[in-house]
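Many introductory courses stop at the sequence. We go one step further.
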Amino acid sequence: MYQLPLNIKLDSNATFENFVVGKNQQLFHRLQNLINGQDEFIYIWGSEGTGKTHLAQALCHLFDQNSKTLIYLPLNQAEITTDALEGLQFADCVCLDDVNSIEGNEQWEVALFNLYNNMKAEGRSLIVISSHSLTDSQFSLADLKSRLTAMEVYKLESLTDDDKLQLLIKRADSLGIELTNDVAKFVLLRQNRNINSLIDFIDEIDHLSMVNKRKVTIPFLKEHFDSL
């Protein structure tokens, strides 16, 4: 029921169940309740690695499970043009990720401005996700910035180390890996703490564990990763 552009794939593990909420409880519950509403306009921003794309894709899964139409477009993908925004106002919800990548592009800003107005006229919902706060954004079209400012605005807060520990264990569990608290702490102390890097590392561990048919232990990690 959701639509994706060519070559864009959803992460099957990017669900609300697998999201580590941390200090983002209000936003987390707001997005989960989006399935029951309409004419919802929400602007979400946060630094790299805070889980913005995870939440966007979790929305895709949620709408799909409820037989509703959500269009997800990551605007940092070169193959996506402004034509992709035409006619989207008839979907239940449109979620635009990486909107910061089109700041200052006149053609894109006009297209986004028109989509906003069309979604509002149809009583549909629009989610805009960016790495920039509205204050720090570089939109040149004043009318567009005015529309975005009128949206509900949420900042996605970074995870604490304890939250990241929980994320490692949750990600491993979703892949069928038993990751003890001690092993997770070992990884967190020695790896890049960027969320995307931690997830990539767990995915790599999953592959190695399957290939070697071994449990993930500290000796196993030391054996396969010189950096540890």
